[in-house]
Input
Amino acid sequence: MMKVELRSDNAVGVAPEMLAALAAANHGTELAYGGDTYTEHLHNLVREVFEHPSARVFPVTTGTAANSIGLSAMAPPWGAVLCQHNAHIIVNEGGATSMFGAGLVMKGLGGDSFKIDPAELESFLEATGWGDPHVSQPAVVSLTSPTEYGTVYQPKEVATVAEIARRWNLGVHMDGARFANAAARLGCSPADLTWRAGVDVLTLGATKNGAMSTDAIVSFDDAASEQLVYRTKRAGHTASKMRFQSAQLIAYLTDGLWLELAGHANRAMERLAAGLGQLDVGFVNDPDVNILFVTMPPDAIDRLAESGVLFYRMDESTVRFVTAFATTDEQVDTAIALVGAALG
Ligand SMILES: Cc1ncc(COP(=O)(O)O)c(C=O)c1O
Output
């Protein structure tokens, strides 16, 4: 039976281009802990790609590390990070932000399409007991784009949230574990999606889009960058052989490879969504990128699980499908046929 992998973009392997970059970096010697020529090149490349003259990049091994260490550099221990209540940082990271943030807490806000509702953010800030030591002091707003539910923030939507954050003296963080998928979808520049819209610190994911255990914190804020030099080391994320992380990220960001890989994953989802749209399933989210949640009768999900399609079952009648840079049209078409058969 042909297996069709739709559980996660974490389930697929490493993109051949990134593996080749690793192999190419595997010669000679280099200074450790980021003192190597690859990491220096990466810094310049990030500044060029993000059109920001003082951006700094800190490679780490996971998205959780990028989020939690990045956030810890933006808030005091008595602070609060405000995020949409489905955000990975609050639901799926085991409190890593609180640990690296020395007690920093996260507060979940509502919002349609899995994005923060600006009006709710404003009301929350208005109702905050500012200066009251009994109350965690809001310090950062964290947006996820694409969201955990596969929707993306338009640059204008980021700017709206960031403008509120600025007025209340909060920093702006973006969890971009799948940032390339958002950039490929929107077709706008990385700068427009981040610092030009008000983002101070970005989690730039690469692993889900083809890297081997390599994501990065990109900081557009000098004060956060200064702290991140120390915080990444203290958190155990300053790799001695950083050149291998940097070599991958260089390949990723060169000649648009990141957008090509993400564009492929997005197109695979478009094809899947078009096919599933013809069947009797409900869409939970607009599949702006490579993630789609659908509702189906529980017995159809049981049959689908036996059919060779690999997916996550979120509850009795909801499943999650995720495509990746390696998903083929044939796999997508097989999945559509098997969902059709499972529905009966
Ligand atoms: C939106 C989002 N942020 C962050 C992460 C964390 O990445 P990691 O699992 O590498 O820690 C994930 C992982 O699935 C994610 O989906």
